[in-house]
Design brief:
The complex is a heterodimer. By secondary structure, chain A is α/β, with parallel strands linked by helices. Chain A is built from 13 helices and eight strands. Chain A is 41% helix and 16% strand. In chain A, strands 3-4-2-5-1-6-7-8 form an eight-stranded mixed β-sheet, with helices on both faces. In chain A, helix 1 crosses helix 12. The longest helix of chain A has 14 residues. Chain A is globular. Chain B has a three-stranded antiparallel β-sheet, with helices on one face. Chain B is built from three helices and three strands. The chains are: A alpha/beta, B alpha+beta. At the A-B interface, helix 11 of A face helix 2, helix 3 and strand 1 of B.
């Protein structure tokens, strides 16, 4: 059975698109047929992060409005056999998204894909609402920083009330899990950054993963490669662990999966930087 | 001259990022407000013209676009009924 997973956060710039790309690629690497949809109408960016920006012909909005068939708008990833991207429109605005249109596209995708990852725009308006509305599960991307945690709490409230599952009124709920990004173990240990437990205590949802602050994230974005394809990087590894948990595996939580590989000087530099 | 030199070596990821943005933004800026929906219209027109001569399905047209700094190509594949051959034309 296919699953619709929304990657959301409320706050902008916390890593929703990076996480959507990394999770989508991670699922495809495990052999699951996966599509990542960009819901940020007017500010298309998933295509750049996934490196297919030169191949966009038709988009999500064209499909919703009947100007193109779904298979014409889907872009097949060149690196991973099971990975597809559904880009959004760069020229329309979020009003082009309709509840009925989104449902029709998701229903059609459900017939063919194992996982449908919805990359939500920032904010809590139409685009973000529709990205989460039909979700079965949610990945709430949060930085260990006050405004991000506050916004995540607000988004969790919306997941519990303004989604198709919540509106059924039979106790169904979107399964929400926390993805803590840009985490710095050293700063947290020094008391400069909230700890994982601090954030978990406040938000009170299960932890999907901890993504360490890592230089490989900017490199991946520069090159248009999902960071989970960089299996040597701490962030790439952390995303792959998170994907394993997302599909139900028990994987030990490591604050920094790359830590044991770092040498003495790197650790020294990491601490002073 | 310099771009020739840098291309010989493996470009840094920052250089890659800059080049990707330059290509993309050049297209986005030049297309302006008029063109965003021209592809669905183009598809409709192509279907209409081909249908005057052949009986084809509305699903049978596939448009692919590939942009690069010196060349962009638009590839239109039309699947013909009963004949199991795809005709490709590059405009």
């Amino acid at each position: 059975m296919s699953k619709v997973i929304v990657v959301t956060s409320g706050k902008g710039g916390v890593g929703k698109t990076t996480s959507s790309a990394a999770i989508g690629a991670g699922l495809a690497m495990r052999g699951h047929k996966t599509v990542v949809i960009d819901f940020d109408v007017g500010l298309r960016n998933l295509d750049m992060i996934m490196g297919c920006e030169r191949r966009v012909v038709f988009d999500f909005i064209n499909v919703i409005q009947g100007d193109a068939k779904l298979k014409q708008a889907l872009i097949k990833d060149r690196r991973l056999e099971n990975l597809f991207i559904l880009p959004t429109s760069q020229t329309r605005d979020k009003d082009a998204l309709t509840k009925e249109g989104v449902k029709a596209v998701l229903d059609e995708l459900r017939e063919e894909f194992d996982y449908i990852v919805c990359d939500s725009p920032a904010g809590i308006e139409r685009g973000a609402h529709l990205a989460m509305y039909y979700a079965d599960e949610a990945v709430v991307v949060t930085n260990p920083e006050v405004s991000s945690v506050r916004d995540s709490d607000r988004v969790l409230g919306l997941l519990n009330s303004k989604t198709a599952l919540a509106e059924k009124g039979d106790g169904s709920a979107v399964k929400a899990q926390l993805l803590l990004t840009r985490f710095d173990q050293n700063r947290s240990a020094n008391g400069e950054m909230m700890s994982v437990d601090d954030v978990l205590e406040i938000l009170a949802i299960p932890l999907l993963g901890i993504i360490p602050e890592s230089t490989s994230v900017l490199k991946a974005s520069n090159e248009g490669t999902p960071v989970s394809l960089d299996e040597k990087s701490p962030a790439g590894k952390a995303y792959l662990d998170a994907v394993g948990r997302l599909v139900g595996e028990q994987i030990e939580m490591r604050a920094n999966p790359g830590e044991q590989r770092r040498g003495f000087f790197q650790r020294l530099l990491g601490r002073t930087a | 001259m310099f771009s020739f030199l840098t291309r010989q070596r493996k470009p840094s990821s920052a250089q890659t990022a800059k080049e990707r943005l330059q290509i993309l933004l050049a297209h986005e800026r030049s297309s302006g407000a008029k063109s965003p929906d021209f592809l669905p219209l183009l598809q409709r027109d192509i279907l209409e013209v081909v249908r005057r001569h052949m009986d084809i399905d509305s699903d049978a047209v596939d448009i692919k676009l590939e942009r690069s700094d010196d060349l962009s190509s638009l590839e239109i594949n039309i699947e013909l009924p009963s004949v199991k051959v795809e005709k490709a034309r590059t405009l």
